[in-house]
Write a structure and sequence with these properties.
By secondary structure, the protein is an alpha+beta fold.
């Protein structure tokens, strides 16, 4: 068992065995042991193939000798000898019906041609397999399946599809899997299932499959597929009247979404943590109003909305500087007042909190918007003109005036320098690539989004083309390098596992700098140590705690 830091807030545990199946058994046992003896501060345990990633908050890990990393490390190392409180549950067998070929499997003929089999032989070999769920990730409920007949191995598409229909069954190299939701994807598609693999309406069991489950496919006809299609209940759009609403959207802006601090604890189901891109600014916005840090608020991107306030409200705006709007302090707006947040003059994202917090439903343990699956937030989407949102009841009284200090602000003027810790696959990269990361400049491209910042600049390459990485857990700030050599810094809406090597991990306190950078901005990387990164994180947490304590002394609620 090898333990590697995945930045300052996660540990990558690598287990080795003679076969993938044997390694998967070790991974399942370790994940089960860790879950049966939880450690305070650990939020997610993400098993995948031959690894387990343990996500933790350095400020919440119990005190003791050594750094937070060392204390979590000792807990993980002790896990194999832990007495299990209960027996591991027996693996389930799940049968998934699949309609192969035709419109449901547009790449079936291409797979047959590549493998030199007939289409009927491809179907027969794929359907007769007995598969093991080796990981759940990429998107909520997406199963990575081991056990496919080697003859069916087919490379991914040169250019991924922009949209893969929900239920599509695909092959990616030596793996097969099922797309639970309509998402982009590069696997070749041979069929489709009417079964729902992601069920956000089921809080207890939102995913059909779990790691360790056995999966079998059964062949069905198009007619049977239509008959067995699991209907999704239509989304019920909440209605908020002018009398109960806090504000109405006059102009929507580029991308305005409801966010909270995310959905920790569900990454093993493929459900991303999500949350604000600039977590520090979002937390400060709520703290300034005496709200809980996790209250729902608005994230405004590049061009914010124009809002008509329908009642007297206390708000706080943090993050990017918004022209004409006081920032980083409580501000009272009157009923009937129209406030424009449209011009973000420095930074890319601003956060608008309102006293009491926005009134939105909790879904899968959180209130934030998951745009890729149309779940959470306000109807699972960005705000649009005419939307009205309410707030939780309560009257806020403030004594005196105050603002947050400049230490929490991460806005830039075109260039940011972020510190990083060497990634788990740092040694895989050529010495020239490692040197380029710390000496050359990169630029943020227009293809960047909440999932990741795509960078242009020097191409980063491995020291050997024969290196191959099985998908493993990733973290906020992981710097992945796909085959084209262009690094991607994974951000708030990142997937939970990834298969590209990670050259670096941006430290937690510098992620806000990336969140506030815009397309075309320059990014430079500077190496740091794990001890430095965790010390900076703990220092920032202490500053936030002091701010919250000071605000509590000045806020009165009734």
């Amino acid at each position: 068992m090898q333990l590697l830091p995945l930045g300052d807030s996660a540990i990558l545990v690598v287990l080795t065995a003679k076969t993938h199946a044997a390694a998967l058994e070790l991974v399942e046992r370790l994940a089960w042991a860790l879950n049966n003896d939880p450690l305070v501060g650990v939020s997610d345990i993400v098993p995948a193939y031959t690894t387990v990633v343990v996500h933790y908050d350095p400020a919440k890990v119990p005190s003791g000798p050594g750094t937070p990393f060392e204390r979590v490390q000792r807990w993980v190392q002790a896990a194999p000898s832990m007495p299990l409180a209960t027996k591991r549950p027996a693996a389930r067998e799940v049968v998934i019906p699949v309609c192969y070929g035709g419109e449901y499997g547009p790449d079936l003929a291409a797979v047959a041609q590549h493998t030199r089999l007939t289409e009927a032989e491809v179907i027969r070999l794929h359907a007769k397999g007995v598969y093991r769920v080796a990981a759940v990730g990429f998107s909520p409920g997406f199963p990575y399946l081991l056990g496919m007949e080697p003859k069916l191995t087919t490379p991914r598409l040169p250019t991924p599809r922009m949209a893969v229909p929900a239920g599509s069954v695909g092959i990616g190299g030596v793996q097969t899997g099922v797309y639970p939701s309509a998402t982009p994807g590069g696997w070749v598609l041979i069929g489709r299932t009417p079964a729902r693999l992601f069920r956000p309406d089921d809080e207890a069991e939102p995913t059909l499959l779990k790691m360790g489950d056995t999966v079998k496919f059964t062949v069905i006809t198009p007619q049977q597929a239509a008959q067995q299609m699991e209907r999704v209940a239509p989304l019920i759009t909440p209605k908020v009247s002018k009398q109960s609403a806090a504000f109405e959207v006059i102009k929507a802006g580029m991308l305005t979404t409801v966010q909270d601090l995310g959905r920790p604890g569900r990454q093993h189901q493929g459900i991303p943590v999500g949350g604000p891109m600039d977590r520090t600014a979002a937390r400060v916005a709520n703290v300034l109003l005496g709200n809980d840090e996790n209250e729902p608020l608005l994230e405004l991107t590049v061009n914010g909305p124009e809002l008509l306030f329908l009642r007297d409200s206390w708000i706080a705006v943090t993050g990017a500087e918004v022209r004409g709007v006081p920032g980083w302090r409580p501000w009272k707006v009157d009923a009937g007042q129209i406030v424009s947040f449209t011009e973000l003059v420095r930074g890319a994202r601003a956060y608008l909190a309102i006293a009491g917090g926005l009134e939105v439903a909790r879904v899968l343990g959180g209130t934030g918007t998951m745009l890729s699956t149309v779940v959470g937030g306000w109807n699972g989407r960005a705000l649009k003109t005419g939307d009205r949102l309410g707030v939780r009841p309560g009257i806020l009284e403030l004594e005196g005036r105050w603002s947050a200090s400049a230490e929490f602000r991460a806005t830039s003027t075109g260039e940011v320098t972020v510190r990083f810790i060497a990634g788990p696959q740092w040694s895989w990269f050529s010495s020239a690539s490692r040197q380029a990361l710390v000496t050359d400049a990169f630029k943020i491209t227009a293809k960047s989004d909440r999932m990741g910042l795509r960078l242009s600049g020097p191409e980063l390459g491995l020291d050997s083309v024969s290196r191959e990485l099985l998908s493993e857990g990733i973290a906020f700030g992981s710097v992945q390098v796909p085959p084209d050599g262009r690094p991607i810094v994974l951000m708030a809406d990142r997937q939970t596992v990834g298969g590209y090597p990670k050259i670096a991990q941006v430290i937690s306190v510098d992620l806000a700098k990336l969140a506030q950078a815009r397309t075309g901005d320059t990014v430079r990387f500077q190496e740091a140590t794990l001890a430095e990164a965790q010390a900076l994180y703990l220092e920032q947490e202490q500053s936030l705690a002091m701010l919250a304590a000071g605000v509590r002394a000045k806020v009165k609620r009734s």
